[in-house]
Amino acid sequence: MRVESHAISIVARMETIDVQRHEGIVTITLNRPEKKNAVNAMMWDELLATFREIADSSSDRAVIITGNGGAFCSGADLTAIGSGSAERHQLTTMRHVGDVAMALQRLPQPVIAKVRGVAVGAGCNLALGCDLVVASTTARFSEIFARRGLSVDFGGSWLLPRRIGLHRAKELAFFADIIDAAEAERIGLVNRVVADDQLDAFVDEWATRLAAGPPLAIAMTKRMLNNSMNVTLEEALDDEGAAQTVNFSTKDTMEAMAAFGQKREPTFQGR
Fold first, then answer.
1. Which of 1, 33, 141, 162 falls 20 to 30 Å from 243 in CA-CA distance?
2. What are phi and psi of 241, to 5 degrees?
3. 3-state class of 169 per DSSP?
């Protein structure tokens, strides 16, 4: 791994991804442009290690995931299946892929997928596994698995119904059609679609706002929203009460109250 430092930006270049840190924002760039950023075994390993590192960092406040070379991610690299891994059963491999999906979900920080070009298969579900999805007008999405004789993975069976409802999820998964950014926005697969030349600035602005927010409060809100379909209303209210009790004991909430009274923007420290 090579690390470069430019002013307050730190860029770590691994074999298949680049990780840049700048003012509390971590940008993970999938970096196999010759394969449209298809995920091979090394990328799964590097993503897992990176997600776990970010989860343990108090200085990382927001995360952006994107791809290099005009594509987000073309899914798992099927050409690499079986190469160099004869000792590993496919179920073991898929459990490892599941570990990566869970590590993404467990990130306490808010995560934005910045999507240009194709996001298909596991690449589509990598984007959907993020908290927010912002797509360029060039973006195309597909749960392409059925075309390859496969069923959905990387959390797609859980993510799709929550994003777009059960019947639309089945339509995308059964037919494996490729849809453009406008259709993805219409059915609720993405949060926003912006012109390609505005995508970077738009996502940077959202990430900057998220990084300036209260980390503990946002992390607890994220956890409760992610868990919302698994609890009763009574359990949700109990969780909200516990979260607010924690918030009222933090310096960040005291700072927010003081800033409100003084008519200024609060400065949150995550404590």
1. 162
2. -65, -45
3. helix
pLDDT digits (tens, 9 = 90+) for 250-269: 999 999 999 999 999 999 99
| Token duo for residue 129 | 């596994």
Q: Which two tokens stand for residue 25?
A: 């924002």
The answer to whether 106 and 73 have CB atoms below 8 angstroms apart is no
Q: Give, in order, the Cα–Cα distances in Å from 173 to each of 124, 144, 155, 160, 161.
A: 11, 7, 12, 9, 11
CA atoms of 224 and 237, how far apart (whole Å): 10
By DSSP bridging, strand 140-142 and strand 111-115 are unpaired
Does position 19 have pLDDT exceeding 90, yes or no? yes
Q: Is 3.90.226.10 the CATH number for 2-211?
A: yes
- Please state whether 154 falls in left (phi above 0), alpha (psi between -120 and 50) or beta: left
**What DSSP designation does 226 have?**
H
Query: Class assignment of domain 215-261?
Result: mainly alpha
Q: Write down the domain spans for the chain.
A: 2-211, 215-261
Token pair 């299946």: residue: 81
